[in-house]
């Protein structure tokens, strides 16, 4: 029996999509990366259910859609050099873009639920297109100005990050701050300074509302409400140095809460998120007997052909 196309239906109240296998016991490897990318461009996030992937299957699926895989240096790898176990305590995690408070934001965020919790632990998603469209005009005007994130990163973490991002070109002990600076690139958006203890301090400038991987439409997609579980909490301000007003943050928090949707995990579920458009977070963990893996990557550039506007 030949493998049919996956069944596609709406997921939630927005444009998210749920994919389930067609006939012939389809696996993730049966999915056409160009079709997946086209669907993601429309949907913002995808949930793939019933494909029963191993962690190796998941890792290959990520690689098949990616030019490069990145990482969080505070997490450990599983099943190769792609998947990292999600371990951020048990509290709820605020909405954010993966690495959205740094100059190293990936295009795509991936999740594999190996074992679902019996309660709690839902991953939350919030489409920044919907947020920006629903925001008050005065609040959209306030975010016409860029914001900045500033924080310190320990030496061991930035060196591990450079090691992975450069494909292990140098042993970790030989990596220098200039290697880190070269990776960040020459840009007016990033200021990078080495401190006396070897740690790095950076200031990163970006829009709270931003264009996306697939087009020029603005999405309120950022890490203003995001976590800092393994890192120092960043200082967030407008680019002119003034704090973001509490009232503005409160209104955006209420709005994002209204538009946030839950992914109630089932064993074997995979989620793919456009990390330039859709923020994600997590409900509090009430059952710790769960296993979820995360991956981050930059999309294969050929998959963007005909999809950007």
Q: In DSSP terms, counting alpha (H) and pi (I) runs of 4 or more, how many helices?
A: 7
Would you tell me which CATH topology of the domain at 7-129 and 256-304 applies? Double-stranded beta-helix
Name of the CATH superfamily of the domain at 7-129 and 256-304: Clavaminate synthase-like
Q: Spans with pLDDT under 50 lasting ≥5 residues?
A: none
| CATH class value of the domain at 7-129 and 256-304 | Alpha Beta
What string gives the helices and strands in order? EEHEHEEEEEEHHEHHEEEEEHEEEE
Q: Helices and strands: which structural class? A: alpha+beta
Largest sheet: 9 strands, mixed
Number of strands: 19
Query: Can you tell me the overall shape?
Result: globular
Q: What's the helical proportion of residues? A: 10-25%
Distance between the termini: 38 Å
- Spatial extent as radius of gyration: 19 Å
């Amino acid at each position: 029996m030949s493998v049919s196309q996956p069944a596609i239906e709406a997921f939630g109240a927005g444009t998210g999509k749920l994919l389930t296998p067609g006939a012939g016991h389809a696996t993730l490897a049966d999915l056409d990366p160009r079709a997946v990318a086209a669907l993601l461009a429309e949907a913002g996030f995808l949930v793939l259910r019933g494909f029963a992937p191993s962690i190796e299957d998941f890792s290959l699926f990520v690689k098949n859609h990616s030019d490069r895989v990145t990482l969080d240096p505070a997490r450990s790898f599983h099943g190769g050099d792609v998947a990292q176990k999600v371990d951020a305590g048990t509290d709820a995690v605020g909405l954010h873009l993966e690495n959205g408070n740094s100059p190293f934001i990936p295009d795509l965020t991936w999740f594999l639920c190996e074992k679902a919790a019996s309660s709690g632990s839902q991953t939350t998603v919030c489409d920044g297109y919907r947020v920006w469209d629903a925001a008050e005009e005065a609040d959209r005007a306030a975010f016409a100005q860029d914001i900045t994130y500033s924080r310190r990163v320990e030496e061991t973490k930035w060196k591990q990050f450079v090691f992975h991002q450069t494909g292990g070109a140098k042993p970790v002990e030989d990596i220098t701050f200039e290697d880190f600076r070269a990776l960040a690139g020459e840009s007016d958006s990033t200021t990078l300074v080495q401190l006396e203890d070897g740690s790095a301090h950076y200031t990163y400038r970006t829009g709270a509302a931003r264009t996306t991987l697939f087009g020029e439409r603005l999405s309120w997609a950022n890490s203003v409400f995001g976590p800092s579980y393994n890192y120092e909490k960043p200082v967030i301000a407008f680019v002119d140095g003034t704090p973001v007003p509490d009232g503005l943050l409160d209104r955006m928090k209420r709005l994002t809460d209204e538009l946030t949707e839950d992914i109630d995990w089932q064993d074997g579920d995979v989620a793919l998120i456009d990390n330039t458009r859709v923020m994600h977070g997590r409900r509090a963990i009430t059952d710790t007997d769960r296993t979820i893996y995360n991956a981050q990557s930059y999309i294969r550039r050929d998959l963007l052909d005909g999809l950007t506007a």
